[in-house]
Amino acid sequence: MECKTHISVRDLSVFYGGAQVLNNISIDIPDKKLTAIIGPSGCGKTTLLKSLNRIIDLQDGVRVSGQVFVDGEDIYDPKVEVTHLRKKMGLLLQRPQILPMSIYENVVYGPRIHGVRNKKKLDGLVQCYLKVSGLWNEVKDRLHSPATRLSIGQQQRLCLARGLAVEPEVILGDEPTSALDPISAERIEQRLLELKSQYTVVLVTHNLRQAKRLADYVIFLYLGNLIEHGPTEQILKNPKYVKTQNYINGEFIEELTIDKELNLKATVCPDNFAKAKLALEELKHGQVLKIVVDYEVAVNEVPKAMEFEGHKVLEIKRINQKDWEILIQKRNGVYTI
Ligand SMILES: Nc1ncnc2c1ncn2[C@@H]1O[C@H](COP(=O)(O)OP(=O)(O)OP(=O)(O)O)[C@@H](O)[C@H]1O
Ligand SMILES: [Mg+2]
Fold it and tell me: 23 alpha carbon to ligand 1 midpoint, in Å?
């Protein structure tokens, strides 16, 4: 890779008890780019991510061998101070891990631990990072109310603000949008896209379309082995290895043929469900319907209703300020209750 390396992993192996779950991984993760880790469930994505900031140490019975260099320093060297290391790396998990305190206190939690006491400075940090995480306008009038009252999507943006407030160099994300509704997920994606020019971002994702939208580089793991890695285009469009090809083909990442299009703008629920359902009835198994909707309830509810009917939602994507495109693949038969 031509760009500067931020994190270098060398011969990293991880064992849980007797079982080896990562096998001699060596990889350079570029500075100030977004790198996505993809691969089937159980292949070791979370383990690899957690090895990068030594959160893995907190698990019982885990053994790590090999090296991880961050800014040239081996983080598994016994001399390394783990708190300092973790400060460099913000972590976003699948479910937002907010602290049971106010919105304000969540953001200043890290800076307080690191000795910031000045109220003006703390106020400034709260405003700054809530703005960066896109939450400020929604919460500026209730900074001292409990963070638990926020929606899940807002909580995830608060976690992002809290992570950024300790001024990390790296943002690690373990499927941070997978538990969110499409609109909240899109907000987090937008944030990550903006942040990647200033931070090194490493993102575990199950969603190859998300990897395609966000990532500069992709790492493909399979059964604890690094199969291949490289620029996103190359890995998703032109993978070298059959294992990668099979995984990518199975996840429908290739350009889809749209078999039918339906404009459902200004159509409310449940009319839009009914129209989408009717359109899918006219398609054959495996064909793809594209619908366009323009209000938030529909963005969340229409895909849910179509999944309930047994179809597969392939993509939900914002196409401009108001409109969203939803791709649904027709599935015959069985209802999924
Ligand atoms: N604490 C643990 N103790 C024992 N085995 C574990 C532990 N955590 C993970 N594993 C095993 O290690 C392997 C890799 O797990 P990991 O969570 O890294 O996979 P993953 O790729 O993130 O999967 P998913 O996509 O389902 O999140 C799996 O076989 C898992 O069962
Ligand atoms: Mg995982």
Answer: 13
